[in-house]
Design brief:
With about 150 residues, the chain is of the alpha+beta class. It is built from 6 helices and 4 strands, in the order H-H-H-H-H-E-H-E-E-E. Helix content is about 50%, strand content about 30%.
Length: about 150
C-alpha cells in the first residue's frame, strides 16, 4: 500500500514539474517579443544615470524601498559604466515565472549588456502594468572578463 502511494505522489510531482516546464516555456516565448525589447529601451533611457530617468521606470514598490541617498549612491556607481550600447545576452528565469503563478506576475532576465565601460552583468525583474513594463528590481555589475 505504501509503495503505491509513493508512486502516485512521484507521478503527480513529475506531472507538475512537466506542466511548469511547458508553462514557463510559453511565458519565455511570449515575453521574448515584448519584454526583451522593453529592457533595451529601459536601459537606453536610464543610462543617462539621472535620477529622474530611473524613477520614471521604477515600479511604485521599488520606489518605496529605496531612499534618495541610496538612489544617489546607485547612480554614482552605475554612472561609471557609461551609456548602454547593446544587449549581449538575456536569459529568461523560469523559476521567477513559476513563482509568479501564486503572486503578482514578475518577469526576470539575467545576462550581459555592452556599456561604454565594456561588458556589464545584468539582472532585471519587471512587472507588466497597463501594457508597460516597470522595473521592480535591477542590478548591474562589472564582469570579471576584461
Amino acid at each position: 500500500m505504501q509503495i503505491q502511494t509513493l508512486r502516485f505522489i512521484v507521478a503527480v510531482l513529475l506531472t507538475l514539474v512537466a506542466m511548469l516546464y511547458f508553462y514557463t516555456g510559453r511565458e519565455k516565448d511570449f515575453y521574448s517579443k515584448s519584454a526583451e525589447p522593453a529592457i533595451a529601451q529601459i536601459l537606453t533611457e536610464i543610462s543617462s544615470w539621472e535620477k529622474q530617468a530611473l524613477l520614471l521606470h521604477l515600479a511604485p514598490e521599488a520606489r518605496q524601498t529605496i531612499s534618495d541617498e541610496q538612489l544617489d549612491q546607485l547612480m554614482d556607481l552605475y554612472r561609471s559604466f557609461g551609456r548602454f550600447q547593446s544587449i549581449e545576452e538575456l536569459n529568461f528565469s523560469r523559476t521567477v515565472s513559476a513563482f509568479s503563478l501564486v503572486g503578482e506576475k514578475r518577469i526576470n532576465y539575467s545576462g550581459a549588456a555592452n556599456f561604454d565601460a565594456g561588458l556589464i552583468s545584468l539582472n532585471i525583474t519587471l512587472i507588466e502594468r497597463g501594457g508597460f513594463f516597470l522595473v521592480y528590481n535591477f542590478t548591474l555589475a562589472k564582469t570579471s572578463n576584461e
